Amino acid sequence: MWGGHSCPPVKSDQDADRVASAHVGGQECPPHTLWSLGTFAKRMITVFTPSFADESNTNAQNLTVKEVVARLDPSRFRVVLLGLGRSDPRIAARPNTRILRWRKRGNTARILWHMLFHIPDVYFFPREGPLDAAFLAARAQLHWKSALATYVVSGGLDQDTNRPILRRAIRECDIVAGNSRHMAETVERLGGRNVQTVYDGIDRRYYYPPPEPRHEGSPPSVLFAASFRHYKRADLVIREAAKHPQWEFRLAGTGEEENACQRLAQDLNCRNVVFLGHLTGAQVGAEMRRASLFLFPSEIEGHPQVLGQAAACGLPCVARSSYRPDYVIDGVTGLLVSSDDRMSEALSRLIQEPDLRTRMSAAAIRHAATFDWDRVTEQWQELLELAVAVHNTPRGKRIS
C-alpha cells in the first residue's frame, strides 16, 4: 500500500523507467486495528529499499536485494528501488515495481520528498548514507507509519562505535536479521528486537560445480576474489604466491590496494601471480570452476557471499575463523584459521594433500546446496509481513 492507502496493482513495462506511478486513493486504514499477522499477509505491502536494481551492480548488498526482489510475490509486495543504469531484467519485468532514478545530486531530498507522498509500509535494508539518516529522522519526527526491517551484514560492528546510522537502525527496527548466526548474535547484543538469522543464497546462474571432476591444470591455481581494500589482505595472497611458485595465484577485483599489490608481486619476483581486474558474476564463476583452492584472508567481514559462491563451485576455502562463516564447515569443506601464520599452514596443507582437496570439494558442493534464494525469499516475505504487523500492533497486544 502507498502510505496506508489501498490501490490497484501496477504493472511494469520491460523498461522500469516507464513504470507507471501507483494511483493513490481509497481510505486510510484505521490505526492499531489490525493485529493478526494473517491480516497483513492478505494485503499489498509497499517496500522501499535504498538498493540499486542495476544489472551491472555487483556490490554484495545490492546483489542480495536484487535476488530477493526478483522472487518476492508481486501480488503481495510492491517494491520501490533505486537505479543508475540498465536494470536487472528480472526486476524490470516484475509487476508492481518502481525504480527511482539516482542522479548526480539532490537525491536525498528528492527521494525523501517522494516518500512523503508515498509513505512505504516497510523500509527494508537501511545502509549508512544520508538517505538512511534522513528517513530515520523523518520517521521519528513525522511519525511515519513505516515499519523498519534492518538487515545487518557488516563485520566489525561490535568493535566499531563510529557507525551511528546503522546502530540506530538496529535499535529502532521492528525486525532485524543478521546474515549469519554470528551476525545475529552481534545485533542482539546491540539492542535489536525480533532478531532472526537469514542467510544470503547463491546465484546458481553463475556459481555451480564444474561439469566434470577437476583435473589439476598446469599449474594448479589458487583464487582470490574481493575488492582490494586494506582489510581484505590481498597482500597476504601475494606473499603466499612467493612460497608456492609451482602454483598460479589469480586475483580478481580492483581497489586502492591493487597497485601496491602489483608492486609487491614485482618485488618478490612472483611470476605466478595474475591480476584479473573487475569481473562479472559469470566470469567469477568461471574462474572458480577452473581453480583448485579459494584463499580469502580478509580480516573484517560479516558473512561474505563469495565463500558460499566458491563452495557452490566446489572450491575448498581457507578463511578466518574470527567472523565464524557458516558457508565454511571447518575441517569438512575448508579450513578456518585464527592468524596469518595459521592461514599459511592451512594453505600449504591443502596444496600438499590433493585427496583432502577432493573430499572437501565434494562436501562444499553438498553444503552450498542448502543456501537457496527461493527459501531465503520465503523467509523475507514472512519477516516483511511480521515487521508491518509489529509496527502496527499496540503495545501489550500479541501478534497471532
Please give a structural write-up.
This protein has 400 residues and is of the alpha/beta class. The protein has two domains: 206 residues, Glycogen Phosphorylase B (Rossmann fold), CATH 3.40.50; 148 residues, Rossmann fold. Helices cover 37% and strands 16% of the residues. The protein has 14 helices and 13 strands. The strands form two sheets. A seven-stranded parallel beta sheet has the order 3-2-1-4-5-6-7, sandwiched between helices. It has a six-stranded parallel beta sheet with strand order 10-9-8-11-12-13, with helices on both faces. Strand 1, helix 2 and strand 2 form a beta-alpha-beta unit. Helix 2 crosses helix 14, helix 8 packs parallel to helix 9 and helix 11 crosses helix 13. The two termini are 22 Å apart.
Q: How can the largest sheet be summarized?
A: 7 strands, parallel
What is the mean pLDDT? 87
CATH topology of the largest domain: Rossmann fold
Tell how many strands the DSSP assignment holds.
13
Number of domains: 2
- Provide the CATH superfamily of the largest domain: Glycogen Phosphorylase B
Count of individual helical segments = 14
Q: Biggest sheet, strands in spatial order?
A: 3-2-1-4-5-6-7
Radius of gyration: 23 Å
Order of helices and strands: HEHEHEHEHEHEHEEHEHEHEHEEHHH
Poorly predicted sequence stretches spanning 5 or more consecutive residues: 1-35
Shape: elongated
Distance between the termini: 22 Å
Tell me the fraction of residues in β-strands, as a range.
15-25%
- Structural class of the helix and strand makeup? alpha/beta
CATH architecture descriptor name of the largest domain: 3-Layer(aba) Sandwich
CATH class (first level) name of the largest domain: Alpha Beta
Helix content bin: 25-40%
